[in-house]
Design brief:
Rossmann fold
């Protein structure tokens, strides 16, 4: 004979189990890394989504950043060969090609690497999930560049501790098959007014911001990007125009590019690219490749 109380309890347990299963996603299995050379990390549910076509430019088109380009490519090549290499912080002026250089260097190194590096992008708001990502790739035979664009921390944001542990300070440490590349407009990943406020209100001002400032020290290689000169800006414009075979004479290209920069109030790689897009549109030319 059926027991109504038992049946009701079983139904309630089934409902509870279903709720728990929905709230706690299954553990992520190792993805098929042979499907792509680039992935985007999504922490909820934990997965690496392959990117069929990465949005990037050829490294030869990145003008005015020769020293930073050579250092980043050299560091990346050493890592691809299994040699010691550093985590990299690319910091400085907006629009000067920091994130473009990371993606371009990855592609350039993979052209000659015996085993292609995997580029994994993690969004700034997902930094707290870095340990889960590390656990997923640690046992893989592939080598990974984990990349975070526009990294910085504000207010009482404590997610920097996850990054700090991964870079150097955790018990397990950073996996040998992983390097971390980040771009930021701030050299110390922390706004100056916040650092000064911490010093002013602390019992020991010298130690108040040490923990947060030391995050930048975990990056062994710092690459600084500064506002470009007029000659560097024009070199960027000319490189794009030549690459896309835009039908415009040199004098007109120079005059229009300078006028464009004046109206924008800035000179940078981003401004140069925006000018080229406008010029190509007026010339009814498609920007292929």
């Amino acid at each position: 004979m059926a027991n109504p109380d038992f049946d009701a309890l079983a139904a309630r347990l089934d409902s509870l189990i279903a709720l728990v299963e929905r709230a706690v996603p299954p553990a992520a299995g190792e993805p098929d890394f042979d499907t792509a050379d680039a992935f985007v990390w999504h922490p909820r549910p934990a997965r690496l989504e392959p990117v069929a076509k990465v949005n990037r430019v050829d490294i030869a088109l990145l003008q005015g950043v020769d020293r930073m380009r050579d250092q980043l490519v050299d560091n990346t090549e050493r890592f691809a060969r299994g040699l010691p290499a550093n985590n990299v912080l690319l910091w400085g002026a907006r629009g000067m090609g920091k994130s473009s250089l990371v993606k371009a260097a990855h592609a350039a190194v993979n052209q000659s690497a015996a085993s292609p590096l995997k580029l994994v992008e993690i969004h700034r708001e997902d930094i707290e999930s870095l340990p889960a990502l590390m656990a997923l790739v640690r046992a893989s035979t592939h080598r990974f560049l984990v990349f975070c664009d526009d990294l910085s921390f504000d207010g009482n944001d404590a997610s920097y501790k996850s990054l700090k542990a991964v870079l150097e300070g955790g018990i397990e440490g950073r996996p040998e098959n992983v390097l971390f590349y980040a771009t930021s407009n701030r050299r110390h990943l922390l706004p100056r007014d916040m650092m000064e406020n911490e010093r002013a209100t602390a019992i020991n001002p010298g130690e108040a911001v040490e923990e947060k400032v030391s995050l930048s020290d975990r990056f062994g290689l710092w690459l600084g990007f500064h506002k470009c000169s007029q000659d560097e800006y024009l070199a960027m414009v000319s490189a794009y125009a030549d690459h896309f075979d835009l039908a415009v004479d040199a004098d007109s290209l120079r005059a229009e590019a300078l006028e464009w920069a004046t109206t924008r109030g800035a000179r940078s790689g981003r401004v140069a690219w925006q000018f080229i897009q406008d010029l190509a549109g007026r010339l009814e030319t498609r920007l292929e490749g």
